Amino acid sequence: MSLDSEVRKRSDMMEETGPDPDPVITSSGSTIKTTTTTCKNNRKWLLLNTHLNAVIYSSCFWVQIGVLPYLSKKLGADPVVFGYLQTTFAVVQLCGGPIFGRFGDIFGSRAALVLSFMAAAMSYTILGLASTVSMLFLSRLPSIFMHAMQGSQMVVTDISEKEGRADALGKLGVSYAIGMVIGPFVGGLITKKYGEQSAAFFAATFSFISIIISLLFIPRNTKALSPQEKSAEKLEANNKEQPASVFSVKKILELLHIPTVLYLITIKIITGIPFGIFQSMFSLVSMEFFKLEPQQNGFVMSYVGVLSIVAQGLIVGVLSRRFSEPFLLRGAICVIASAYGLLYMVTDIYQFCIVIIPMVVGGTTLNVITTSAMTKSVTVTKTGAVLGLSMATNSLIRTVSPTMGSIMYKNYGWPSIGLLGLVVNAAVALFLFYHGKDSF
């Protein structure tokens, strides 16, 4: 194939991302320089809109997460019922995560993001209309496709180099963390002045705004911009390999035959159970153990969001450039184990705010490294599916952790959560030092 025809095919693949503004013609008549420049500009614009949507999605999600325990208590749900509500949400997301990933691989990231924001808007609207506990459970059902963060990771994975992928995913996490700062704060203010339902309607409104952003500014096929797919023929061949069915369980489970994927998924599940218990119960613990009001709870969650911004925006990027991923994986789990040990001794909110620092740093590093390593172990046409499998792991954890957490909290108290985290993560750390992989 001639150079000119190769360039033309590559340009056709990027047709939807925008026209070439100022053609630069070489002596052979090709547009190599223009294509390269346009590609870079489009990626910057694409990243900007992806990060903006991540901020909006996260803000809306944490608005409703912050008000959910207060609304459920107002409607008569006890801690055990609240645990069941959390479990329902996790089960629904567990079913939807891998399917959503396959949907994105087959139909493109734009369609996946629009589907996700539509599901979020529907979920928050039902939550705003809730007048019974049954309606709270009903509001969790549309979340089967509420995976906007997974969709954003698909976009970033598609257009990033393997060497800088951990840093790119970490920066996406910064945008999510910014939403963690904005969401609880705004949700607390709206709840205080107008009530819990108003906060849910606020989240639904901004989810519709994200739908518009996705339709206007996200290209249909971001995989065409992937640095790993250099030839048009290769991308076309890979796309033809994709079966028509989004619900191909066989194709999803085949990913577990990849040693790196299975290894990292196993570590995520084991270390994630204590964190899932901690995360699912924190809103309840802050209300009953720390005696925080909704607005104070919002401040604490915003503080955690600021820590996440620092960890993912600065720390993870620096560490990923200096150390190998297996080394960072071991170190992160050691830090998490230490944080749980300190959490066991926490008695007030001020101590908690200190202990949460190493937990956030270790947790974000663990999450970014495992996600990055899994996407590198598959072809670009399967990154959506492997991200879906990774997200399904988190959802699987959340299916059992709320019920486990409510039982532990009710029978053994808040310190039992810290003790469990210390034992589990210390055991995993020992395994990694003696039998863990030195490369992925």
Task: Give the rounded overall mean pLDDT.
Answer: 81
Reading the helices and strands in chain order gives: HHHHHHHHHHHHHHHH
Quaternary organisation: single chain
Question: β content, as a range?
Answer: under 5%
Helical element count? 16
Global outline? globular
The number of strands is 0
Radius of gyration: 22 Å
- Helix content class: over 70%
Major sheet details = none
Structural category: mainly alpha
Distance between the termini: 35 Å
Q: Which residues form runs of ≥5 with pLDDT under 50?
A: 1-41
Describe, in plain words, how this protein is organized in 3D.
With 440 residues, the protein is mainly alpha-helical. It is 79% helix and 0% strand. It is built from 16 helices and no strands. It has helices at residues 3-13, 32-74, 79-107, 109-129, 133-140, 148-159, 165-194, 196-217, 232-241, 249-253, 259-288, 294-322, 325-343, 349-376, 383-412, 415-435. The chain is globular, with a radius of gyration of 22 Å. The model is unreliable at 1-41 (pLDDT under 50).
